[in-house]
Amino acid sequence: MNLSRILASSVILLSILNLSSCVSYGIGSVKAGQTEPEVTAKLGKPTHIYQDGNQHIWEYMRGRMAQATHMARFDHDGRLISYEQVLTLQKFAQVKVGIMDKTAVLNIIGAPSETAYYPRVQLEAWSYPYKESGVWNSLMTVYFDQSGIVKKLENGPDPLFEPGERRWRF
């Protein structure tokens, strides 16, 4: 077997593996009206499930480096209403300071990639890495007071991708 055939076979194999991993991490094509079993067959098992009134939401987190979380929203009959990437400026804008609690935030943008507590200011921080405008490696942080109400949101560059930062690594 010559080198070009080995390389071509390797590229094909890596492409197949990459596509199959995408399906398991919430990237896939599903359509409104599909049933829960149909969505599971396409997207796999969700990373989290939330209840929002008579609807339920399946979350597909793609991890810290992937910078994406997709949510599948189902009606009370188990039919898909919507499926979308939720780590966007538009979704973050729906998080209302002084009004929303942790449950409401989970229903809008899902679980954080990281959490921290700052005892001096008595705030809990939930961090969400994402691609701002599809280009910039950004980090949105939602801060909660001791009663679990959103106190503030903070957006900036993701230090994981900043040269010279201790946390920067691939």
What's the topology here?
Layout lengths: L2 H22 L11 H8 L4 E5 L2 E7 L7 E6 L5 E6 L3 H4 L9 H8 L4 E5 L4 E10 L3 E9 L5 E8 L13
Antiparallel strand pairs: 1-2, 2-3, 3-4, 5-6, 6-7, 7-8
CATH hierarchy, class of the largest domain: Alpha Beta
N- and C-termini, Cα separation: 33 Å
Strand content: 25-35%
Helix content: 10-25%
Mean pLDDT: 85
**How many domains make up the coordinates?**
2
Largest beta-sheet details:
4 strands, antiparallel
CATH architecture of the largest domain: 2-Layer Sandwich
Q: Could you give the order of strands across the largest sheet?
A: 1-2-3-4
- For this entry, what is the oligomeric state of its chains? single chain
Number of helices: 4
What's a quick, concise take on this entry?
The protein has 170 residues and is α+β, with helices and mostly antiparallel strands. The chain folds into two domains: 85 residues, Beta-lactamase Inhibitory Protein, Chain:B, domain 1 (2-Layer Sandwich); 85 residues, Beta-lactamase Inhibitory Protein, Chain:B, domain 1.
